[in-house]
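Lab channel / #folding
Pinned by the channel admin:
"Please post every new chain as: sequence first, then the structure tokens as a reply. Keep commentary short and put observations after the output so the thread stays searchable."

First post following the new format, from NK:
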Amino acid sequence: MEEQLPADVFILGVDEHTACILDLDTDTATVTGLGAVTIRRHGHSTRFESGAAVPLDIFRSGDDSRPYTPSSVTRTEGAEVREAAAPFLDGVRAAEKHFDDAMAAGDARGAVKAVLDLDDLVAEWAHETFSADEEAQARAALRSMVTRLGEAADNGLRDPTEVIAPYVDALLEARQRARNEQRFTDADAIRDRLLAAGVEIRDTPSGTDWGR
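Reply from TO:
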């Protein structure tokens, strides 16, 4: 039956769970999904795997002087094959960045919002066609975020040193006053309580330093 087709007609085969997106603005065709797209013309087939983007001239061409093969399309015909844009993964990366920024800033609400945004994105794309690798990347990102939030729940988002610094500094000032007034028993008691709480005190010629 193929022989009965008009000379300028070709067959476009799209695998299951696969899409061929024709973008007239950029004059390209992009293959997304789990399979591939095949162009068959005059008994010759050209196959484009998921992730490829090629000029629409490949579809328009009526030249049947030689077979269309992937190598002739990508080299002889000069069709540029590039990694297709992945809006889903772009959304995943954006959510990851928002999460990282929020965690770095100690913004718990912002971090939670990034997790919820990613969860919404996955739900929004649940009925769309995208590769198993893309889904795995999204799940891995979501699991990583939740894990880091769990760690933050145990340890806090802020450096503990920043939280206790005002209290430790006040106690060290009280210790220094006690030493100046030769109340060494009181000064030693303050030091011992700080040490018991995990605060290391270092007396130096320039003053007292502390750390954890």
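NK: The radius of gyration is 32 Å.
TO: also worth noting, The longest strand covers residues 18-23.
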